[in-house]
Amino acid sequence: MLWRCFDTLHTFANRNDVTAAKMVDLTETEIVLALQNDERLAIPLTSPVQTAKDAHVVLVEMAKQAHSLLAAKTD
Fold first, then answer.
1. How confident is the model at residue 5 (pLDDT cuts 50, 70, 90)?
2. 57: which DSSP letter?
3. Helices 52-74 and 6-13 meet at what angle, rounded to 10?
4. What is the CB neighbour count within 10 angstroms for residue 59?
5. How far apart are CA 57 and CA 72, in angstroms?
6. Distance CA 10, CA 66 (A)
7. Quick check: 14 and 44 in contact, CB under 8 A?
8. CB under 8 Å to 2, separation ≥6 — which residues?
9. What is the pLDDT of residue 4?
10. Could you please report the per-residue DSSP string of 5-55?
11. What pLDDT score does 19 carry?
12. Residue 2 class from Cβ within 10 Å (0-12 exposed, 13-18 middle, 19+ buried)?
């Protein structure tokens, strides 16, 4: 699964250099990505998750927060 929420990656990990990432793990507290140079990057979740539904809710909310934060920076 390609992780296409680069707003989230750029905002929460401060990694504007990343152009490709693949989710390789999701724990209760973080999402782990494999980057294009075989680097692994762990991004803390804003809330702990227990179920797939929890993960969906938290990841969507993080994407929305990141989009809002980046939009505010360009205004």
1. low
2. H
3. 80
4. 19
5. 23
6. 8
7. no
8. 20, 21, 22
9. 47
10. -HHHHHHHH--TT---EEEEEE-SSEEEEEETTS-EEEEE-SS---SHHHH
11. 80
12. exposed
Rounded-to-integer distance, Cα 47 and Cα 69, Å? 18
Range 21-28 average pLDDT: 91
Is the CB of residue 50 less than 8 Å from the CB of residue 70? no
Buried b (16+ CB within 10 A) or exposed e, 8-44: bbbbbbebeebeebeeeeeeeeebebbbeeeeebebe
What percentage of the chain has pLDDT greater than the value 70? 89
* Residue that wins the pLDDT comparison between 70 and 44: 44
State the amino acid at position 25 in one-letter form.
Answer: D
**What is the maximum span of the chain, computed from C-alpha positions, in angstroms?**
36
